[in-house]
Amino acid sequence: MQKDTIAIHTGYDKKNGNGEMAVPISQTTAYAFRDSEHAANLFALKELGPIYTRLNNPTNDILEQRYAQLENGAAALVTASGASAVFYSIANIAESGDNILISDKLYGGSVTLFHFTLKRFGISVKTFKSDDASDLESLIDDKTKGIFFESLSNPQIAIPAMDKIVEIAKKHGIITICDNTVATATLFNPIKIGVDIVVHSTSKYTSGNGTALGGVIVERDNLAEFFKQNSTKYPQFTTPDASYHGLVYTDVPLPVFCLRARLSLLRDIGATPAPFNSWLLIQGLETLSLRVEKHSNNALKVAEFLKSHKKVQNVSYPGLKGDKYYDKAQKYFKNGLASGLISFEVESFEEAKRVIDSAKLFSVVVNIGDSKSLIVHPASTTHSQLNEEELRKAGVNPTTIRLSIGLEDTADLIEDLNQALNK
Ligand SMILES: *Cc1c(COP(=O)(O)O)cnc(C)c1O
């Protein structure tokens, strides 16, 4: 099936139940088993079905099936937020003593997760130059369990050398994880270029209206084979799990990454989405591709305007000819579309704050991917927990303003930015 059909139909059979046209919300904590044997079979994975909503839920399941197919994956697991999806994707492959290689351009929340919280758990990180991945291979050691990057980074709006990252990872038998939140499944499918795991914050473009938090993890086909070939590096998938009566995940004929994340991480940590949030995200997914095209076209027009404005020092938007990442956007993203984020520089820190405070139509908000246009000053908000050195490394300047272009008419957006800049 084609993506626009998958986003609307996959995983739901209207002929079951009452024929509800909208996917029903299974707002329940637990499920009645037919009898004790049915219950035992479900726990032993001899039969598949919902047990308890922390582990699985029919509404969440439909969102999972749609995302798995939209990302050309084998399976998906939805989580309560993008942050928990990122955390689980790492916790599934690494433990104390291991290390993860991360892109130098990442979402602020992921930077703090990697540098502080995971560090407390004994998982260390090494940062690589994502623009050309020239130092990536030299950072790999026998404790390197994953390579993490964003296909279109927030807020630097950078596109990494993804083919090279994948090639190096494959050579060394290391799992790649791509955060595809900003590019979205509409514009780019990391699995198609050989990435192993895709994560999203569905709170952003999938929701589309800023109404629900959510995250998703998607795994590629045949990961079980990969883990068997690299079993000394990833024994948690190929050796008995004492916490699940000696289950060997690669022995189960189900996509193994999400299986383990569900049976051990969701079981023990439980960042499960509320079915109502999944339902909202299912509504959002139906129009994702239409919206992302419009966000991208709007953003290009606004970026062109900013580029022509004398008070704007520099505009980053990969859809813009001459942008540092223009060629990569053409190469990787559908029709060269580059989603809705723009960053630009003004003269000073004070000027940046003044422009933000003068905008009327743009809301000062740290979210992205909303139908409403948003403006933010990363250095004093999303990235304020980083010190000056970390900010510089993360590619965020005190003079950077980030826009998330919404679905309004661009004439109004441009007029608003123009008056804010000229004030
Ligand atoms: C927002 C965001 C996250 C975190 O997602 P939440 O849903 O806010 O927890 C992770 N990665 C990227 C690129 C994001 O933009």
Automatic annotation (TrEMBL):
Its EC number is 2.5.1.49. Its cofactor is pyridoxal 5'-phosphate. CDD domains: CGS_like. The keyword Transferase applies. The keyword Transferase applies. PANTHER family: HOMOCYSTEINE/CYSTEINE SYNTHASE, HOMOCYSTEINE_CYSTEINE SYNTHASE. This is O-acetylhomoserine aminocarboxypropyltransferase. It comes from Aliarcobacter trophiarum LMG 25534. The lineage of its organism: Bacteria, Pseudomonadati, Campylobacterota, Epsilonproteobacteria, Campylobacterales. The gene is metY.
